[in-house]
From TrEMBL, chain A:
Domain Dimethylamine monooxygenase subunit DmmA-like C-terminal: 140-183
Top-level taxonomic group: Bacteria
Alphabetic keyword roster: 2Fe-2S, Flavoprotein, Iron, Iron-sulfur, Metal-binding, Oxidoreductase
The protein's name in its UniProt record: Ferredoxin-NADP reductase
Record organism: Microcella frigidaquae
């Protein structure tokens, strides 16, 4: 079973203003504030006036760009404390969005993935969304055996809180589940675990 | 191939599970009709797509092959669906048109190729379906899901051998929209639904580098209804276990550590996958069936000795990346060593057995 080198991982973009957009929504978390600040700096005054930023201060690394974002006083800013609140805010904004809406996502891979689930439910196409990875390489992992999702996994092998099996995290990513796949690490011989390396790529 | 002309009797109570003590076994005729997937002594991937036209009197005779295991395999499917609801059958909501397409293709093919077992009678959209092997006699309205107790794809594929993955065409790509996969080899349907062609092939080594995926996708996108194509693939499985999903890996992966040089002949099974792809007429989806055949190394030696020799050579020279990908690392050497006893090194014919001059099972 291939663990690394699997080509199903998303390829991320760099956030740049999408000129065709009439309305711009940027949703970021933690370190994702930095690319959003860069995006705002590249926008015209007209684009900034039609932009809403949703920023979650939840961060695995502790990085916050809150004060810099609050300094952008010509941009509408909604601040929330958790990533799940940010997804709810995105849902609210998209529920009233019209044609011409462009979406910008920045943050951890798990955050971008779950935000993509919300966006897909509203039928946004890939060419209407830009995604920039920022911050740590923590992963959201789906346990193939008990269906539990674990956020912020940092190592190649971890214990599933649902079924308590030691799982190996494959570099295999499902956009629909917004998660990497975790499978029993010592499936063939109990106790024979692969190396517990840091997930830093 | 004279002894394959008589269809073997159907065996109704074989099991594919440890609880059922793995009573699955092949008859001599059942082995010698297999779509043996090794045309050469050395194996490497290729697209190996060819028109799916009837060939020979074995597994390539019908559009959708059934064999002596049909009844047992359909019963196994029902058992797996009931044990793990939502895990082995998934269909996204917009796939309903493709579901009816698939039902039509399966039932028309079965009724045409096996009129002694299946009859489909159409009166406009009022269809009468008779499956004498499973004792089913139903009428329903084609296109109206309320006239069936199950979704059309689940209803039809509960009466079919093999797994079925339906790919929808979207933006010049093929995306998994539905699947009936009670016998999948080492992947998760729930995880893979919604993936694009390159994504669901991600775990397969070498394909990208060899340029096979680009060419395969372009080829498949040009497929037309009524012109199916096929390829064969293979892996090895310990015990005659059909259900080897990622979900149940903790149940079956330990079996790999039980193989020895002595017991490999009975434990190790060649798992042959016959994949006949069809473009569906209304939905424009493509159905990717995986008709799976299991045969133990010992059965091959007994009933198809030349195929056993060929398998020995192909396994002995298998690329290490494929040994790992197919999960053979722990017992590959035992399988090769067991088969070596029965390989005298005699030259073997090249080509698939259903092709002119291809390798035959041997005396």
């Amino acid at each position: 079973m291939l663990i690394t080198g699997i080509k199903s991982r998303p390829v991320y973009d760099q956030l740049v203003p999408m000129a065709s957009g009439l309305r711009h929504i940027a949703v970021a978390q933690g370190s994702g504030g930095k690319p959003v600040l860069r995006l705002l700096a590249e926008m015209t005054a007209g684009q900034r006036a039609s932009t809403t930023v949703v920023y979650s201060t939840e961060s695995f690394t502790g990085n916050s760009y809150l004060s810099e974002l609050q300094d952008q006083d010509d941009v509408e800013l909604r601040v929330v404390a958790t990533n799940s609140e940010a997804l709810q805010a995105l849902d609210d904004v998209l529920s009233t969005a019209n044609m011409g809406t462009r979406l910008y996502l920045a943050g951890s891979e798990g955050f971008i993935g779950t935000a993509m689930q919300v966006a897909s439910a509203y039928g946004l196409d890939r060419d209407e969304i830009l995604r920039e990875h920022a911050g740590s390489f923590v992963r959201r992992v789906w346990c193939a055996h008990c269906d539990t999702y674990t956020e912020n996994v940092t190592t190649r092998v971890f214990r599933c809180p649902g079924c308590e099996l030691d799982l190996v995290v494959r570099d295999h990513y499902s956009s629909r589940l917004a998660a990497f796949q975790g499978v029993k690490a010592d499936g063939e011989v109990p106790g024979e675990l692969p190396e517990i390396e840091e997930l830093d790529t | 191939m004279t002894d394959t002309a008589v269809p073997p009797a159907f065996k109704a109570d074989e099991t594919y599970t440890p609880e059922g003590q793995y009573t699955f076994a092949n008859s001599r005729e059942g082995v010698r009709r297999l779509p043996f997937p090794f045309p050469d002594d050395e194996y490497m991937y290729s697209m190996n797509l060819e028109p799916h036209v009837p060939a020979g009197d074995g597994a390539m005779r019908a559009a959708f092959d059934i064999d002596e295991h049909y009844i047992s395999e359909c019963r196994h499917r029902v058992q797996m669906l009931e044990e793990m609801p939502g895990v082995h059958y998934v269909a996204l909501p917009h796939m309903m048109e493709a579901q009816w397409d698939l039902l039509e293709l399966l039932f028309e093919s079965y009724a045409r190729d096996y009129p002694e077992h299946f009859t489909l009678t159409k009166n406009g959209n009022e269809w009468h379906w008779q499956n004498r092997l499973l004792g089913i006699d139903d009428t329903f309205t084609f296109g109206d899901p309320s006239t069936l107790e199950l979704e059309p794809m689940e209803y039809a594929t509960r009466q079919a051998q093999g797994e079925f993955v339906v790919l929808e065409e979207r933006d010049g790509d093929l995306v998994i929209g539905a699947g009936m996969t009670t016998q999948r080899a080492d992947y998760s349907l729930r995880f893979n639904v919604g993936m694009r062609f390159f994504e669901f092939h991600g775990p397969v080594p070498k394909l990208h580098e060899m340029g096979i995926l680009d060419r395969a996708l372009k080829f498949l996108l040009r497929m037309k209804p009524g012109h199916p194509v096929r390829r064969v693939n293979w892996t090895l499985t310990v015990n005659p276990r059909l259900e080897t999903s990622v979900e149940t890996l903790p149940d079956w992966a330990p079996d790999r550590a039980t193989v020895t040089d002595e017991n490999a002949g009975d434990l190790v099974h060649l798992r042959i996958e016959l994949q006949p792809l069809h473009r569906l007429p209304r939905s424009n989806a493509i159905v990717f069936p995986v008709r799976t055949y299991l045969v133990s190394l010992a059965e091959l030696v007994e009933h198809a000795p030349d195929w056993a020799k060929r398998l020995h050579r192909a396994l002995a020279t298998l690329d290490p990346a494929l040994v790992d990908y197919k999960g053979l690392t722990r017992y590959h050497a035992s399988a090769v060593s067991w088969l070596a006893q029965y390989d005298d090194g005699a030259p073997l014919a090249g080509g698939y057995p259903w092709a002119d001059g291809g390798i035959q099972p041997g005396a």
